Inverse folding.
């Protein structure tokens, strides 16, 4: 898992940020194994550091039902490690963070993200941009569509990593080495 830079506000520029209009105090961010570059986590950290918000990280572990039995698509240790890594990165960036793992049936992930946001009292939900094309889009609602459908609070879709503007001249490997020292 890539690390979140410690000085987020200096290293990343938020696209279309409206923090002056409606500051967020509690931000829920959904993380997934598919987030290879952690752009969603970095965006949520930048948003939280600019507004002074606390962040709650959630990871949904889906179970599939086949032949009357439930099968886990991911192990509990993998899910816990993903959330722990995200929490560590956020705390290194100076953001107050907590996290949880929820288990649900495949196809109900978005409902659980909204339920977690409601229970925690989140002001906004941050989701990743997700893949542009997927076979799953042909047969079911995407998680993002589910969240948008059920959420009563703002849902922010983080821009892909390629559209985030890098303003620092220090590469991420140098930044990691400086934090490790």
């Amino acid at each position: 898992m890539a690390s979140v830079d410690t000085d987020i506000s200096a290293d990343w520029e938020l696209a279309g940020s409206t923090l002056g209009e409606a500051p967020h105090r509690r931000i829920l961010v959904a993380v997934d194994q598919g987030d290879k570059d952690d752009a969603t986590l970095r965006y949520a950290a930048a948003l939280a550091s600019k507004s002074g918000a606390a962040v709650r990280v959630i990871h949904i572990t889906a179970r599939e039902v086949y032949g009357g039995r439930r099968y886990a698509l991911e192990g509990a240790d993998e899910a816990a490690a993903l959330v722990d890594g995200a929490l560590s990165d956020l705390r290194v960036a100076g953001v107050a963070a907590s996290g949880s793992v929820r288990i649900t049936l495949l196809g109900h992930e978005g409902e659980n993200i909204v339920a977690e946001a409601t229970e925690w009292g989140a002001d906004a939900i941050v989701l990743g941009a997700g893949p542009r094309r997927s076979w799953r889009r042909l047969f079911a609602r995407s998680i993002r569509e589910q969240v948008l459908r059920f959420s009563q609070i703002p849902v922010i879709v983080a821009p892909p990593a390629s559209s985030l503007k890098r303003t620092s001249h220090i590469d991420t490997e140098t930044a990691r080495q400086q934090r490790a020292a």
Q: What stands out?
A: The radius of gyration is 16 Å. The chain has seven helices and eight strands. Residues 22-180 form a domain with the Rossmann fold fold (CATH 3.40.50.620).
